[in-house]
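Late entry, evening session. Most of the bench is empty. Finally got around to the prediction I had been postponing all week. Sequence below, unchanged from the version circulated by S.P.
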Amino acid sequence: MDSPVTSSRSSAANPCEVLPLDMVKHGSATGVWPARCGCLRVGLRVIAVRDEEAKAASALLMGAGLHGHQYAIDAAVAEAALRQQRPVVMLTSDIDAMVKLCGDQVRLVAV
């Protein structure tokens, strides 16, 4: 599983963004949004998903009533987002699942 990626700086003017590392790799490799990927890479920090984080992600899944591989990855990303200093902005293609996992603690942006 790719580790979630976050911006290295977070403040009200510069919220933390969380997205899966494969999204950055895919976007830059395909040229879909190379300027955005280049800008993101400047301040990125890769966060490992270790045992503690995996257990927290599993608890999020159970609490949200979700299951399956797709949601396991979403839960790992959500768990990483919830650990970040606020404000946090998450780019996601699955708003419904992320609302269940993050509640109102993370600002969600559909991509």
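Two things to note before I forget:
The domain at 4-110 is CATH 3.40.50 (Rossmann fold).
The helical segments are 21-30, 34-42, 51-64, 69-82, 95-102.
Will write this up properly tomorrow.
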